[in-house]
Design goal:
SecEffector_AnkRepeat; 136 residues; Ankyrin repeat-containing domain; 10 helices; Ankyrin_rpt; 68% helix; 2 domains
Length: 136
Amino acid sequence: MDRPAKNGHLEIVKWLHSNMGEGCTTYAMDFAAECGQLDVVNWLHNNRNEGCTVAAMDGTAQNGHLDVAEWLHTNRSEGCTTSAMDEAASNRFWDVVDWLARNRSEGGAAATIATCASQGDIERVYWVPLHWTHSV
């Protein structure tokens, strides 16, 4: 069930759940979140007990899936690591960086500033500490 979840095959996930007694691991929700499969993440949350890990929000931030990050923040308690902001900045998903800075407390601002500096993005170097709602 983990792989169909990652690839967004919700009907297959449902079928495996109903007909095969197929189990899954936390990878199912982690991978689905990382790949932006919000419908799968939501279904797993409502129908399975495995849950997810911090890798779910880290991966979704890294890949710029703001809608999934917001959903995880509202519906799950695992949170994320500093990698969420660092990787979102590396990949220039500024809407995700902005949202993380305003809504999460895991940190990552120092590394994010370093990433922006290494990319020559002086505006973002100044932007991060001004918008980070937690201590840098």
